[in-house]
Amino acid sequence: MGLSLLWVLRGWRRPDEVRVRATPTSLPGVELVTATVARIDVGSRAVHTSNGVLGYDALVIALGATLDEAAVPGLSKALQAGAAGEFYTLDGAMELHTKVDALNRGRIAVLVAGVPFKCPAAPFEAAFLMAAQLGDRFASGAVHIDTFTPDPLPMPVAGPEVGQALVAMLEDRGIGFHARKAVTAVDSAERTLHFGDGTTEPFDLLAVVPPHVPSAAARSAGLSESGWIPVDPQTLSTRVDGVWAIGDATVLTLPNGKPLPKAAVFAQSQAGVVAHGVARHLGYDVPERLFTGEGACYVETGDHQAAKGAGNFLCAPAPSVTLYPPSATFHEEKVAQESAWLDRWNTRTSAP
To answer: Which residues form the FAD/NAD(P)-binding domain (predicted)?
Structure first.
């Protein structure tokens, strides 16, 4: 489960504690088909899979985003050589935890290798969590941590006040923040990052957010040139009748022209909107439900505390979001959220 990966990185969760195992029991009334999607043909209303062709009357695309390490020259080699690690997969988060444990001195570079990416707060949370994991090695200055992003501020869609507040939190902890740094190559032999502005930065350990791309299956639907699926901001419908998309596979344009962040909290609320939309499309008498843009995310600070960003992202002319200071209460809210999601998918025995 994505929201738990940072806690795996910190060493607070074991892999078997954060796995989601959807079963017929957790999906009452739903036929569960396990297969790989090869191609989506919206013209003939068919999904071609490794387990046969599925026809449909209504289609909801929820295929997420895919990591593409090869998009940055040298990044795949750095990951394979152990000079770099990532925390967007379960194995990656476990391996990076071990690498941080083994680092006695030097510099950790936390790099956003491309935008958009899942969970805008995640790279900065990772910096906080690794600093806490290092303990005295970080506090004494034996190990330094710096963050690099192509964006002008962290979480830019949330607005400059939120971004500036997060930069202040990083600086208060002694973590460096470097804006507008678009990586062009990673040299694992020299342990050096190369950026589009002609500068270079050394590292001893690279913690990277790999570039994200649409899945091949989502691109096959042909709903946009980029592969990210444009949706109506309120209904999540696509340009094709009877087809919706939710979550990280989509591009939902906000009133200020920027895309909605890729975050699970939005996918969860979008699911209810689309469920009503599908039912109405199929002729059922149910009320219309619209996506409101309300959402909140937590920014873990490594000490069993978390800040919380909350607000409405569909507000005009720009999102209205507030970043609340770190507290143990917000951390416990995220723990409760994790528990509820795992219970929903792994142990539920009755209809939701």
So the answer is: 29-271
Directed axis angle between helix 122-134 and helix 90-102, to 10°? 40
d(CA 286, CA 72) in angstroms, rounded, equals 47
**pTM for the full predicted model:** 0.94
| 223-232: pLDDT as tens digits | 999 999 999 9
- DSSP one-letter code for 21: -
Cα gap 68→211, rounded to integer Å: 5
Model pLDDT for residues 156-206, shown as the tens digit of each residue: 999 999 999 999 999 999 999 999 999 999 999 999 999 999 999 999 999
DSSP 158: G
In sign, the C-alpha dihedral spanning 92, 85, 247, 226 is: negative
Omega within 30 of 0 (cis) for the link into 317: yes
Structure tokens at 316: 């005009």
Distance CA 275, CA 287 (A): 11
- Domains of the chain as residue ranges with CATH: 5-14+67-213+294-345 (3.50.50.60), 33-62+215-282 (3.50.50.60)
Q: How many other CB atoms are there within 10 angstroms of residue 339's CB atom?
A: 10
Show the CA angle centred on residue 209, arms to residues 220 and 20, nearest 5°: 70
